[in-house]
Amino acid sequence: MRSGNAVEARAVERVFHSRKRDIHALGPVDLDVRDGEFVCVVGPSGCGKSTLLRMIAGLVTPSAGELRVRVKDGRPDAAMVFQDYSIFPWKTVLANIRLGLDLAKVERREADRLARSWAAKTGLSDFLDAYPASLSGGMRQRVAIARALAPNPQILLMDEPFAALDAQLRQVLQDELLEVWQADGRRTVVLVTHSLEEAALLGDRILVMSNRPGRLLADQEVPFERPRRPELRATPEFVAFREQLWHLLRDEVRSA
């Protein structure tokens, strides 16, 4: 991999095979994600955004091309947050957050310390002994984010993490993620979203994808300096940039 890159893709494609037909879901796609960069991926439904993310995570294999991801101990140095929380209902909040540390065989006292630290950063300190069934959707997603970050992965992959939440709670969690990421040394993040506002608020770059098979239509630098504040949403410059993104994407969404 090139120095300074966390992810590299060259002519990557993905074809899904079935008895009736083959579906060309993605590609070819070329991209670089740099260390410490927050990259958002937007595009029409079914364009392969989530497939791309799952290939970076090692959950899906490319059908063609080459995909390289920074590794640690022989595995991709990445953690993933899914839309549907994917936390264990029979484990407490603390045990869910500690899961990756337990799998890595981190000593229990240290694992508890790290899990409690991330619980505090994500507003969960008062719920450590609670079970997921007693939590709201927003709290469950906080658990999923804290669990992903606790083992200290250098790449965080997020697949529409706030899509299942109502508009107000979604905005609250966007603001919290922005604050945590900016305070956390800015680890590499790749976030898939349908929200142009979310992408413009959080991202350093926005990758705009075409209708299926998904290809990169644009690689758009976000023009707002960091650190950012949630109040940025209300500025004319932010509104104009969001409309610029929609202009790039509109015809693809309609055709999808």
Q: What is the rounded distance between the termini?
A: 34 Å
H-E string: EEEHEEEEHHHEHEHEEH
According to DSSP, the number of beta strands is 11
Proportion of helical residues: 25-40%
Total helical segments? 7
Largest sheet: 6 strands, mixed
Give me the secondary-structure category.
Answer: alpha/beta
Taken from the alpha-carbon principal axes, the silhouette is globular
Low-pLDDT runs: none
Rg of Cα set: 18 Å
Mean pLDDT: 89
Strand content: 25-35%
Strand order of the largest sheet: 7-8-9-3-10-11
Organism: Nocardioides soli
GO molecular function: ATP binding; ATP hydrolysis activity
Pfam families: ABC_tran
Domain ABC transporter: 7-236
Short structural summary:
By secondary structure, the protein is an alpha/beta fold. The chain has helices spanning 49-57, 93-103, 108-121, 137-149, 167-183, 196-202, 236-255; strands at residues 5-17, 22-34, 38-42, 64-69, 71-72, 75-76, 78-81, 155-159, 188-192, 205-209, 216-221. A 6-stranded mixed sheet has the order 7-8-9-3-10-11, with helices on both faces. Strands 2-1-4 form a 3-stranded antiparallel sheet, covered by helices on one side.
